[in-house]
Design a protein that fits this description.
Blueprint lengths: L1 H11 L3 E5 L3 H14 L3 E5 L1 H7 L1 H15 L3 E8 L2 H10 L3 E4 L6 H18 L4 E6 L4 E6 L13 H11 L3 E4 L5 E4 L8 H11 L4 E4 L7 H9 L2 E6 L1 H17 L6 H23 L6
Parallel strand pairs: 1-2, 1-10, 2-3, 3-4, 4-5, 5-7, 6-8, 7-9, 9-10
Helix pairs in contact: 2-4, 2-11, 5-6, 7-8, 10-11
Bound molecules: glyceraldehyde-3-phosphate and zinc ion.
Zinc ion binds next to loops.
Length: about 290
Amino acid sequence: MIKNYLKRTIEEKWALGHFNFSEDEALRAIVKSAAEFKTPIFVGTSEGERKHIGLKQAVNLVKAFREEFGIPIFLNADHHKSFDAVKEAVDAGYDAILADFSALPFEENIKLTKQSVEYAKSKNPDIIVEGELGYVRGESKIQKEIIEIKAEDLTKPEEAGQFVKETGVDMLAPAVGNIHGIVVSSPETIDIQRIGDIKKAVGENVYLVLHGGSGLSESDFKNAIEVGISMVHINTEIRVAFTKTLRKTLEEMPEETTPYKILMPSIEAMKKVIEEKLKIFGSVNKI
Ligand code: G3H
Ligand code: ZN
């Protein structure tokens, strides 16, 4: 099922949205937006996010939302950086994993990613495994410091070809000038030519994922999709929408003590961001 959508992203030139959550409110905002827009959706938890919501809780909450809304929602173990963490997510029933060993030397990255693919597929032949190659700097927050991307951070197309062949991954997250977080002190320039070259090197059956989507422009997304991006990750922009609105609500309702009343405007603010992105990614009405 995931593979069918991935195939369609290339044939029809659109991208799946992947949004992170660590609590019910963000997940609710993502699912409601996706249901209203009739779009298949990826929801992801990093190791930290998964620790907050709970591994079993993440799997079962997504299951409950799937049943209630009747839309394809896929749960991804985002940026899992040890084999143990990957194993736990696979065993818990995640639909996809990002086995992220990009901080290790090339050969080590290949070895651990391959081990993750073999384990994941032995437990669930339908699971989707993503690998990461190159160095995507930053983290999902407002990045006030200057982030300098070095030439050696960027994914080399020929290495990407070798990486996917040797590991057997279904998807690849390349470093193409993208940065995690909203960068305020330095420009974030996406190397579109490089994305196209990497796509050619990995072939039509391996799908490319653009990380660090927050702060990128509409034309960045559209150009990236045009040359072969199949999925875009967004985290910081929904975190900012949540917290900014929460601060405002607390100021506006100093006497309010009912949590759901305080949280409601934040859900709406996150929905607005998500819906804007889904329109840009072109994934509306694809179910
Ligand atoms: O894996 C998560 C994403 O790459 C999020 O990046 O915080 O820049 O949107 P972002
Ligand atoms: Zn990422």
